[in-house]
Every structure is written in structure tokens, then in C-alpha cells.
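Fig. S4 source data, part A: sequence.
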Amino acid sequence: MSPMRNFGCGTLYIPPGNLSPSRNPDRDIKTAMSKLKSKQWNENLTAMNLIRKLCVHNREVVTLNTMDLCRDIVKQVNSLRSQNSRLAIMTLSLMFSTLGRDMEQAMNTVIPGLMKKAGEISNEFLCSEAEKALCEMVTHTNSQKCLTALLTQATNKSPTVRGKVAYFITKLIDETGSKIFQFREFRRLMEVVGNYLNEGSQSIRDSAKNIIINLNRHSPNKEEFALKMKSMLTEQQYFKMIKVLERSVDSEHSPKIKHRWSPSSGRKSGTKTWDEYRRCESRSRLENKRRTNQSREYPQKSIYDELGGTKNAEEMMLIYKDMESTEWTRRVKGIKDLMSLMKDDNNVHPTEVVDKLCERINDSNSKVSIFALQSVESLLHREEVISHAPVWAGLAVPPLIQNLAANNTSVRRAANSAMDSLLQSTHPSILLPHVSNIVSYSNSRVKISALSQLNALVRKMADKK
């Protein structure tokens, strides 16, 4: 008898290595397809175990019915019964690892359900299994078709899902290498990355930065890569991309953030493999943190210097250290010192100051958040800041609108006042693309605030005409 494991509520899960061969594959595939459509949850589980057995020992039978099977399995992925959903995700994971490129025809069918479950961080088991399945998809399918499938979810309304999309695109770039630049969807990829750089979520922005760093690392010609990005990104997005690359520390002046996940083509999904992957990712994050600390201790020449940046680099680094402190009083002190330095030093680039203040607008402490919002509002009355609005608008608009929907009344009031100042001092054509982006991709609560600001911008543009 095959070893089995309790899978919750009496359900039995058979590990892939213990699945026995089928005596009659043709009969079993028909039975599986019939039971998948059943309304009895235990019959659905039996069907999925049959499919897993056929994937391991009789893959040609499954290949002939891939699309029909995937349509029914996706329904189980979205099942409210967690054991059905989990086994369905594990079935898709095994199908990707055993069927390989034969699963490409079903990628657009299964990826919405897998991404949805990968974004449910409240359910750790389903989220983990969905991530494993997506890893198998990235490893065993055609990279160009996989990128196309991932980009279909790039505009998902859920910020968590968009973050997962960026995360797996980074993995795909590691898997593909320099071939990524020849893909027909490359321009679409850069449009998505450019939008992600302006996201309100820090994790999505970080993932977009990792994509840029990985692309630069795999680019055979760094100058050509920079020119290509300049033609595909807006001025503000290109400015942020240069900033990201310059902050990356590398001996050859070529940023390298290593993702150590690189399963072999024949590797099966399993607990040990995933644990190893998690440990590697943890070590990678620690290494990136160490490099970041080094870059703060030994700051290199940045793009702000080329644009007329501050000469008080050491003082700026101390201020930034205060602004990133774990103590809220030190963070407030850092904001005060930054505003004082900008008044005393005319060489401080406004974009750098706005960028740092926007990081504190979404601070977990409401006092820090309110003080940062008030500081941004005071900057909007200075001509040298307004003159650079096309560059920093994409940094300031998302956090301001996000705080218009804050639960804290004081934060909401401060954000509303800062947003009013921004609308009065800046030409509406500069703000319109960023506000429209938030209306398209934010959650319903933020979208309501964004729509009111969009309405105000349209009225202002109409008055100017």
C-alpha cells in the first residue's frame, strides 16, 4: 500500500514518489474527468490524485486532455474548501514539472487562480503551495510565453498580486538571461516596471528595482541598455532607474543582486526543495542589507551630484540615518534637520528631499506621518521645488492620495491639505498620469479618493483652456 499523509478533515494525500502506476490509464483519465465535475468534494480529491498518478507514470494520456483538465482543476483551486484548493494547486504544480511545455496552452487559464492564491498571505499553506506551482511554471515552460502569461496579471487590482507578478518576473529574468531583451513583450515589460516604480506599496517598488538591476546585470551592453530604457520610460521613471543602478554596489560597477533559486529542469516540487529555496532567499536578503549598509557608510557619487546635489554629503547621511531610525522621535528630528538643511543649503536637490519625505509619509507612526505631510506642504510653496515637479510628482502623488483614505482623521486632514497645495502649485498635466494610474490599479477605498482628485484635475485643465 502506498504511504499516505493526512491532509486535513480525513483527506489523504499521496506524495509524488509514492504514486503507483495505473493499470488502465484510458479508463482512469475518463474517471478523473468525470469526478472533477462532481459536486462531492471527496470525489474531486480522488480525481486529482488520479491525475497526479497519471502525470508521473502516463503523461501522454494527460497531455491529450490538458486544457479540459486544467479548466476543471482551476475551479477546485478557487474552491472554498481549503483541502480541495490545496490539492488542486499541488496537482497543477506536478503537471508543470512533469508535462513541461505541454502545459503552455493552459497557462493563461491557470495563472489567474494561482496568482490569486499566492496573494492570499493570510492563508500560509495555500500561498506557499501557489508559489511553488508558479516556480515550476517559470522553470519548465517557454520563457517568452511565461512572461506573456505573467504580464496578464500585472494590472491586477490587488497590490499583493502585483507584487507577486514582479517577484516571479525577476525569477524569470534569472532563468532566461540576456534572451529577455529579444522577447516581443519586452517593451510591455518595461511599461509595467515603470508603473511599478510609482506604486504606493514599498514591496512592489522594491521588486521593480530588482527587475531593473537584474536586467542591467544580464545586459551585454550597459550603455545600450541605458539608452533603451531612456526611450521606453518617462523622464521621472528613467531618473529613478538611474538612481537605483547607482545605489547598487558591485566591484565592476554593474549591480548584481543574486537570486539563488535555480532548480534543475528535472527537479520535482517538494518540501525540502522549497525550504532550501527559502533559506537561500533569507541569506540573499541579509546580503543585500549588508551591502545597503556599506553603501550608506561609503556613499558613492549619485545622480543628485550631477544635477547639482548637496555638498554636505556626510550631514545628509546622518539625517537619513535618523529618518530611518526605529524611534519615532528620531525620525521626526531627521525630518526637521532635512528641512533646515534645505533652507541653509541651496545645493540640495529638491527631488532628493521629496523622495525622502515621501518615504516617511506612509510611516507606521501617525505623528511622523503628519509631520512629513506638513513638511511636504511647506515645500510646495518654494519655486525651486515646483520647477522640478515633473521629476518628483510620481514620488509624491501615490502616498498623498493613499493617506487621503487613511483611518486616522489627523493624517487624512494633513494629506488633504498637502494635496490641495499640490493641485494649486502644479500644472494639472504633470499630475494627471499619476492620478489616473492610481484610479486604474488601486483598491476601492483609495480609488474613491483618487477619483475626486482626478475630477479636480480635469476641472482645472478645462479652466486653463
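Fig. S4 source data, part B ends here. The CA atoms of residues 197 and 205 lie 5 Å apart.
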